[in-house]
Amino acid sequence: MDIVLTPETPHRFRIERRAPMRVPGVVFASEDLLPAGGAEALQQVVNVATLPGIVTASYAMPDVHWGYGFPIGGVAATDVAAGGVVSPGGVGFDISCGVRLLAAELAAEDLPPVRERLMDGLDRATPRGMRGGAVWRLTGPGQLEKLLAGGSPYAVAQGHGEPRDLDRCEDGGAVSDADPGQVSVRAKERGAGQVGSLGSGNHFLEVQRVAEVYDAPAAAAYGLWTGQVCVMIHCGSRGLGHQICTDHVRAMEADMARYGIEVPDRQLACAPVDSAQGRAYLGAMAAAANYGRANRQLLGDAARRVFAGVTGARLDLVYDISHNLAKVESHEVAGRRRRLCVHRKGATRALPPGHPDLPPELRPHGQPVLIPGTMGTASYVLAGVAGGQAFFSTCHGAGRVLSRHAAVKTVPGKELRARLERQGVAVRASSWRGLAEETPEAYKDVAAVVETSEAAGLCRRVARLVPLGVVKG
Questions:
Q1: Which of 18, 228, 320, 416 is least enclosed by beta carbons within 10 angstroms?
Q2: Is the link from the previous residue into 20 a cis peptide, with omega within 30 of 0?
Q3: Quick one: pLDDT band at residue 20, thresholds 50, 70, 90?
Q4: Higher pLDDT residue, 271 or 1?
């Protein structure tokens, strides 16, 4: 199928519905941010539009790029009562990958005398890369089961954090309806030794400075001020989440014929939300989400201890939010409320001001949305807006434009580190190749992605943060 993008506004493009699509495609982007070489990612937008029960549109965020089944930056909602499906490809392999931001009682101007010692401490305290190691050594399978069921609240109850942390976590730090019994033995084996570890790829722990505040009341409510030192952590559910996705894609692919489902790409394997197979995946996915949230809780608490020891400053949690998840939510579609399974893959939920799921002190300002940049570029704090489109969703990051293989050809890791150090960014990397794979040239311009998301009515900017030091997987 030739894909024709019709501009509706300067920041919204439409792909008209053609069989077998059930809904149109909608791409939020500027001309410059449309997918490079575009065909693969846009074809995935079209393919997603064929899923049973999909409503309104198959959406793509400004950071959209090619992914597994769904594009990364894809949002799709299916009507549960109308046979709507859940697809693991609409969540991805790193279930509940997300971002945690902590703010220090410390001004950036006071950091230089201790910065190197702080980065060395964070380097030692942050297990990462492909090697083993984790902040929390679980004592047996019983602890892992409790963590899969309880997420961050269980970690806090075991002494890894503060009760206030849970007020600043999406869903209070745990997804309900987790079913550890739907998690395979192999997935549990892969996750047992990784609780409190950063992983590799684009995951990081970054010390940052609040460089600019756009919305002073929201920033104050979130606990942010210009010149403040922050810590941002980007990671997910490690090998456990990857294995859960693998297991349930295989199971659904084998069962689709039984439900009379045909999809244009086997990577879109799916099952009705209310089927046994659909409920099994959602239970396992929720367990992985709880693992991912506990993982960030552990890493954040380890960073908190290092900060206190080196600087004497405490770290308070600003927010923790995921960008790879499927959630059953209530939304108005065609004039009536419907129970929808909203897939957000490389997309972040952005609840509007006044939403009852937000803690009281944040409710007037909308949900904090955390957008990680790339090494040497800015990251952003956004907020949800009234009337937010795509089921109150927005972007999740810069969006990749070069494969990791292509990225390492652009700059050697040692040269990239030297360049970043000249820019004032202290670097602690687990490998030179891993560092080179994440060179800023491998990504879209995160500032352009954020500006486009705001112009499209998906969110609004609250603050811009710039890196001072990075610990890379």
A1: 18
A2: yes
A3: very high
A4: 271
Residue showing tokens 């999809």: 263
Helix 276-311 vs helix 141-157: crossing angle, to nearest 10? 50
Please pick, among 203, 234, 343, 396, the residue that the annotation labels catalytic. 396
Tokens of 188: 């549990």
By C-alpha distance, which of 179, 217, 168, 206 is closest to 368?
A: 168
Handedness of CA 347, 348, 354, 356 (dihedral sign): positive
Length reported for the chain: 473
Cα separation, 197 vs 205, whole angstroms: 11
Average pLDDT across the chain, whole number: 95
pLDDT level of residue 332 (50, 70, 90 thresholds): very high
- The C-alpha angle with vertex 96 and arms to 91 and 97, in degrees rounded to 5, equals 100
Round to whole Å and give the CA distance between 458 and 350.
Answer: 8
pLDDT for res 100: 98
Residues 26-46 as b/e (b if ≥16 CB within 10 A, e otherwise) read bbbbbeebbbeebeebbbbbb
Q: Cα 416 to the chain's mean position, in Å?
A: 25
The whole-model pTM stands at 0.96
Cα–Cα distances (Å) from 110 to 37, 76, 211, 258, 457, in that order, read 46, 45, 15, 64, 37
Work out whether the CA dihedral 86, 90, 95, 96 comes out positive or negative: negative
Written as one string, the DSSP assignment of 140-170 is: SHHHHHHHHHHHHHHHHHTTSS-HHHHHTBG
Catalytic status, residue 203: no
